[in-house]
Amino acid sequence: MGAWRLRAAGGYTARANTALALGDPGMPVPDALDAVRAFAAAHGVPPRVTVPAGSPWDTAVGRAGWTIDVGHGAGAEVAVLVADLRTLDAAPKPESQPGAGPGPGARPGPGPGPWTVTTPERPDDDWWALGLHGARPTPVQAHVVAPRDVPTAYVLARDAGGAAVGQVRASVVEDHLHLAWLEVVPAARRRGLGTDLVAAAAAWGRGRGARFGVLQVALRNTGARALYASTGWTEHHRYRHLVPVR
Question: Could you list the residue ranges that cross the membrane (predicted)?
């Protein structure tokens, strides 16, 4: 719809089920929002518009009576971070984490012995269980998270006993590596595993021609933002999910 893209994916994730407003929709904004409502109703998803924070479309949609989606559990205000993949492995590790080394090598894990990080290109049951807190993926979740037409690594860390302790999803689109689903179990946090997962994903992406990294993190997720800042990621812009006032 002009420079807006209307998206629906069975209701799973806000980003996959929203109107992305990046420019002129080709009609007055109130009419465009009516079209968003109709599209959402036709696909059985809530009406929602995603706008770059501070953009003219943020202002215009707000003036039409739409407001921040406070009910969005993951956080409706998001920072988009970018990085040069050539520098990520060189990021310093805290001195309190012995054995730190670049890339997906072994490090002390939550139990006896090190953890190992692998980069399989399809998700196994342990990867899904970690990301979905023990649940199996629905067909819609599998469609959104594990497409077969995009090169993707389902990075997984296991401790010495073979238990899954951390994960991240990495997809290459042209020369950009997109990261999502970073998860570390509580017992393995603050030991550098998140850094190792990102480094492993970066190495995998570079091997497939990626030069730059992109990820999205909720503004309220201060722990993740601190991790990314410490390993070379910088903020490119922010966006917000807006919904009609009911």
Answer: none
Which residue segment(s) compose the domain that 57 sits in?
A: 4-78
Q: Identify whether 129 is part of a domain.
A: yes
Closest by Cα among 135, 124, 209 to 167: 124
Query: Domain boundary residue among 78, 96, 127?
Result: 78
**Do 71 and 8 fall within a single domain?**
yes
Q: Quick: pLDDT tens for 162-217.
A: 999 999 999 999 999 999 999 999 988 888 899 999 999 999 999 999 999 999 99
Q: Decide if 151 is inside a domain.
A: yes
Distance between CA atoms of 106 and 197, rounded to whole angstroms?
11
Beta-ladder partners of 187:
none
Instruction: Please state the length of the chain.
Output: 246
User: Which residues, other chains included, contact 174 with Cβ-Cβ below 8 Å and sequence gap of 6+?
Assistant: none
Q: What pTM, to 2 d.p., does this model score? A: 0.85
The residue written with tokens 């479309």 in the block is: 57
Q: In this structure, how many other beta carbons lie within 10 angstroms of the beta carbon of residue 42?
A: 10
Could you tell me whether strands 164-173 and 77-84 are parallel, antiparallel, or unpaired per DSSP bridges? Answer: unpaired
